[in-house]
Design a protein that fits this description.
Blueprint (H helix, E strand, L loop, with lengths): L5 E14 L2 E14 L3 E5 L6 H8 L7 E6 L2 E2 L8 E4 L11 H11 L4 H14 L15 H13 L5 E5 L7 H18 L2 E5 L3 H7 L2 E5 L6 E6 L15 H31 L1
Parallel strand pairs: 3-8, 3-9, 6-7, 7-8
Antiparallel strand pairs: 1-2, 1-4, 4-5, 9-10
Helix pairs in contact: 2-3, 2-4, 6-7
């Protein structure tokens, strides 16, 4: 079997935030390789540093120690050109139509109008947004706005896609719809994806590997290979015995971190 090349190499990554006299050690000693075309999900308790790791890959936050390499080159003060980012909150511009929002990245990159229009049409078709090209975000559902934000990142053809809880604020039905849309788009392009989520079901549904992080300071506790075959039906998948086994095994590790996080405040109160 051919082993694909490493696209993202994380080595001994650490981050301490300083707020006045207070220091918060968010991430400690994180090392991970993400390979070409791989879909990796980071899960862990709230505040464990999973979004901080993502932000260091995307050059939004500078490491306190360690390094991030993308295609062998150190990530410094700006995101590599081959990296796209989808944030938790939909970042569509309310004064731009669906078509104009999706075209924004292409416009910034100087893609000529005819080529830009063709790529936007293709993206809209892939994302199932036909008929909404001239709609403004205020007239769209939250799920549709997030789909526009996703397509705006994908239309510039990033080799690597960073996603920070992009579906976290959505209801279950809308979330499942977007899971199916994301898998459809990913299977067409096979970008390298690093996906942060607090939802273990979401991680198992989407990812090739699930990285479980400890409570703060975030470290990698365990990395799981998701054995569920592709393509995946996001509805029927959850009815399968294989899914239940995957969920139970990973939850055993993840649940321990939630319990430890709950125990810490109780211990602190007992000491006072």
């Amino acid at each position: 079997m051919t082993v694909s090349r490493v696209r993202i190499a994380i080595r001994d990554l650490e981050k301490t935030f300083v707020e006045g006299a207070r220091e918060v050690r968010a991430v400690a000693g994180v090392s991970l390789d993400v390979r070409d075309g791989e879909f990796v999900a980071l899960v862990g308790p709230s505040g464990c540093g999973k979004s901080t790791v993502l932000n260091m890959i995307g050059a939004l936050v500078a490491p306190s120690a360690g390094s991030v390499l993308v295609d062998g080159q150190p990530v410094r003060d700006r995101a590599p050109r081959q990296v796209g980012y989808v944030f938790q909150k939909d970042t569509v511009f309310p004064w731009r139509t669906v078509e104009d929002n999706i075209a924004l990245g292409l416009q910034y990159r100087g893609v000529p109008p005819a080529a830009r229009a063709a790529r936007v049409r293709e993206a809209i078709a892939l994302g199932g947004l036909q008929g909404f090209e001239q709609a403004f975000p205020a007239t769209l559902s939250g799920g549709m706005r997030q789909r526009v934000a996703l397509l705006r990142s994908l239309v510039v053809d990033p080799d690597i896609l960073l996603m920070d809880e992009p579906f976290g604020a959505l209801d279950t039905h809308t979330k499942l719809t977007l899971h199916a849309a994301l898998l459809f788009l990913w299977e067409a392009k096979h970008q390298t994806v690093v996906f942060v989520t607090h939802d273990l079901s979401e991680a198992i549904t989407l990812a090739d590997r699930v990285v479980v992080m400890t409570r703060r300071p975030g470290r990698i506790k365990r990395v799981y290979d998701v054995k569920l075959p592709r393509p995946r039906d996001v509805i029927r998948l959850r009815e399968s015995d294989e899914y239940s086994r995957e969920y139970g095994e990973i939850w055993h590790e993840l649940g321990q971190e939630f319990e430890l996080g709950e125990a810490q405040p109780k211990a602190s109160r007992a000491e006072t």
